[in-house]
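Hi C.,

You asked whether I'd gotten around to modeling the 244-residue construct. I have! Everything is below, sequence then structure, no commentary in between.
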Amino acid sequence: MKKLLLFTLLLAGCQTSYHLTGQQNNRLAVDGSVVADTSTVRWLMPYRQNLDKTMNEPLVTFTERLEKKAPESALDDILADALLVQAGKRYGKAIDVSHLNYGGIRNGLPAGAVTTGNVFEVMPFDNQLVVLTLTGTQLMQFLNHFAANDEALVVGGVRVRMANKTINSATLGNGRAIVPGETYTVAMSDYIANGGSGADFLKTITARDNVNYLIRDALIEYFREQGKAGQPVTPKADGRITIE
């Protein structure tokens, strides 16, 4: 025991202690003056080539550039419709209403070929698809919340008339009225379903299906399907949001 204690003390005494005596810093500009490490560039090249090939894949051709705009735009409508269609396919059941967070739409889409990379610019976040089953009363609360708090209401499958950021009337896309006691399936991002953008009331919804499907992938697959026709597309706002 004494030998072990002596050994421990000797080992501790042999350790070197370091103390900071000064520091300095320099600003390094990341520009053409920085020489790339050639071995690293060669190592990354196959991955970069594969990434470029994926991101540059043309999906569909638009005849004009699309930008988000309040209270409604062609971009808002086609994104919401894309989610409505693709969510129904992945969920395996018809979806009544789709919703996208207006603030989550981060870019427009160009005229000409729309690529996978363009869709990443529009929807850079890895938000997952969630389907909530809401009563008519809850659905109207949902729509009114985003009408009042977002710059624009980005929805598919529903048409609304509103004034002073309050919805006066809403009907489903097929003309059906929203009945308080009936239930409706609503496709949205996990961010919103988890109470994002102030939608805390959604946290209490138990009729929830987490679909293993990125919102971004839904948009990519929708545009790819549209592009198979081989004809340019001219998206238009269809008047689903009416300001009175």
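If it helps when you're writing up: The two ends are 89 Å apart (CA to CA).

Thanks,
B.
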